[in-house]
Design brief:
It comes from Conyzicola nivalis. InterPro entries: ArsR-like_HTH, GAF-like_dom_sf, HTH_MetabolicPath_Reg, Tscrpt_reg_IclR_C, Tscrpt_reg_IclR_N, WH-like_DNA-bd_sf, WH_DNA-bd_sf. The protein has 278 residues and is α+β, with helices and mostly antiparallel strands. The chain is built from 12 helices and 8 strands. The two termini are 43 Å apart.
Length: 278
């Protein structure tokens, strides 16, 4: 006897009868459910169901039905007074599982090792953690000195190339929330640090115009870095890859080339994080 769900639901039936129909149609309900979650995750706050339906070209009845199921399971929160929907606790738990499994470090480690072999300078992979950067992977090139950017180290994001690359990819509102006043700007001696939000905005404007982030002696005197942000499917900075080198060995005239060498590795990691084929 067939399971009743297989008999009653053509989408489930397609998945359990060789997968031909599922492969051909990608199971519309499942795909639309994931599209709704992805859309909500990319928003700055809860949004009306009508906006979700319009943005995803879904019938309103379909959007409401799927939002109701997601709300029952805790993946979506309904704010009845505002008539809006946002990401729920169950979705947050999924993200926590993502963090526990350290997939970015696992995916990034072999890419970073290859980058160091080809470029010949030390490199690291970092993520934003509040106003800090957290270093997940470090690959040291042969005959290069040890750095302060060891795995597990946190540093103020606005002082590091990795942090600046990721901050430059954030919306203005998010950036302002991270740096609401001068007290948010940690300093490391007299290194030309950014001291306020206006200075940070100018620095990040320069970073976007240049196409990569750089720092020169802000963390360690005589040591400089260039970095490229790794963007996820929604365009948010999931991580950054940076190469660090002696300022005397690599002059500023070579930084553009070095950033160009890093860019394909950042793009490769972005594809892996987003689940796209190589």
């Amino acid at each position: 006897m067939r399971d009743r769900w297989t008999a009653d639901d053509p989408e489930v039936a397609a998945m359990t009868t060789g997968g031909t129909a599922a492969t051909r149609t990608d199971v519309p309900a499942a795909r639309n459910t994931l599209r709704i979650l992805s859309y909500l995750a990319a928003q700055r706050g809860p949004v009306p169901a009508s906006t979700i339906a319009a943005a995803l070209a879904l019938p309103r009845s379909t959007a409401y039905r799927l939002l109701g199921i997601l709300a029952e399971q805790g993946f979506v929160l309904h704010f009845p007074e505002a008539r809006r929907y946002g990401i729920g606790i169950a979705a947050f738990e999924l993200s926590s599982g993502f963090s526990r499994q350290e997939p970015i470090a696992r995916l990034g480690r072999p890419i970073l090792a290859t980058a160091v072999d080809r470029i010949g300078e030390s490199a690291h992979l970092a993520v934003l953690h509040g106003r800090d950067v957290l270093y997940l992977v470090e690959e040291r090139a042969r005959r290069r000195p040890s750095l302060v950017t060891d795995v597990g180290v946190r540093l103020p994001s606005h002082l590091t190339a990795s942090g600046r690359a990721m901050l430059a990819a954030l919306p203005a509102a998010q950036l302002r929330a991270l740096f609401p006043d001068r007290a948010a700007f940690a300093e490391r001696g007299d290194t030309g640090d950014v001291h306020d939000y206006a200075g940070l905005r100018r620095l990040l404007d320069e970073t976007r115009a240049r196409g990569y982030a750089a720092e020169d002696g802000a963390i360690t005197p005589g040591i400089a870095s260039v970095a490229i942000a790794v963007l996820d499917h929604a365009g948010w900075p999931a991580a950054a890859i940076a190469v660090t080198f002696s300022r005397d060995a690599v002059g500023e005239e070579r930084w553009d080339t070095l950033a160009g060498d890093i860019r394909p590795f950042a793009a490769q990691l972005a594809r892996r994080i987003s689940g796209r084929s190589e």
